[in-house]
Amino acid sequence: MSTAKKDYKRITTKSLFDMKKNGEKISMLTAYDYTMAKIVDSAGVDVILVGDSASNVMAGHETTLPITLDQMIYHASSVVRAIERSLVVVDLPFGSYQSDPKEALRSAIRIMKESGGHAVKLEGGSEIKESIKRILNAGIPVMGHLGLTPQSIYKFGTYTVRAKEEEEAEKLIEDAKMLERIGCFALVLEKIPASLATKVAQSISIPVIGIGAGGGVDGQVLVIHDMLGMNNEFNPRFLRRYLDLYEQMNKAIGQYVTDVKSKDFPNESEQY
């Protein structure tokens, strides 16, 4: 299997399929605003996820549940205006697709039309199969999401690793194969045993992107505020921090306050 990296000028769902076929890993990060998305896109990230994690990192909610469809469209619109290369995937928020396939389609259409996003992501397997099929039948690309599904946190009662028991692991494999069969272009696996994630990635032809799912999958995704160290209160095992922006920003802002108070800022060269 080739590991040569192709230079993709624009990432599409087919690009991701080709990456898996060619053994090239897929990079995916979240972004929720224009400025951050522009940086992420220019750095070469393949997929930008406008995640419902905006509910946590942007709005300060304890869970992803409170964010609305209108708010997701606002964030996605900001991201889409910034990108030139990345594929933009937008989370359908809690309550916008679970109860009725027709509502799911209406929600997905609103995201595609009003934000300009390239695809949507839904959490769940067989229980939302009809909603996914309805969206796919309208020509809207769908990314699946199995394992730990944060929108179901009150059902699980914990953010612990999922699918450690054989029954849940078997259902996850069945759901992954079902998502591939009905036409999803990719799948996120969150916080499951690495061996299980590897097995899933090897058993289906669509790309599998992991978060806390080990290195045997086809790509990785992290929340950008976590990997840049802007959020210093979140320390799961799967997180690698590439910067400590919390400390650096705190120090810089503190220096600004000091300079203003001491009348050092602005100096003569910084005024008209």
Task: Report what the structure shows.
The protein is globular and about 65 Å long. Helix 6 links the parallel strand 4 (119-121) and strand 5 (142-147). The chain has an eight-stranded parallel beta barrel, surrounded by seven helices. The N and C termini lie far apart (62 Å). It has eleven helices and eight strands. 41% of the residues lie in helices and 13% in strands. The model has no long low-confidence stretch (mean pLDDT 95). With 272 residues, the protein is an alpha/beta fold. It has helices at residues 13-22, 34-42, 54-57, 69-80, 101-115, 129-137, 153-156, 166-182, 194-203, 224-227, 245-261, and strands spanning 26-30, 47-50, 87-91, 119-121, 142-147, 186-190, 208-211, 219-222. Helix 2 (34-42) crosses helix 4 (69-80), helix 4 runs parallel beside helix 5 and helix 8 runs parallel beside helix 9 (194-203).
| CA gyration radius, whole angstroms | 20 Å
Q: Tell me the number of strands.
A: 8
Task: State the helix count.
Answer: 11
Mean pLDDT: 95
Please state the overall shape, judged from the principal axes of the Cα atoms: globular
Structural class: alpha/beta
Separation, N- and C-terminal Cα atoms: 62 Å
**What fraction of the residues are assigned to beta strands by DSSP?**
5-15%
Parts with pLDDT < 50 across at least 5 consecutive residues: none
Helix-residue proportion: 40-55%
Give the SSE order as H and E letters.
HEHEHHEHEHEHHEHEEHH
- Which strand order does the major sheet show? 1-2-3-4-5-6-7-8
- Largest beta sheet, briefly? 8 strands, parallel, barrel
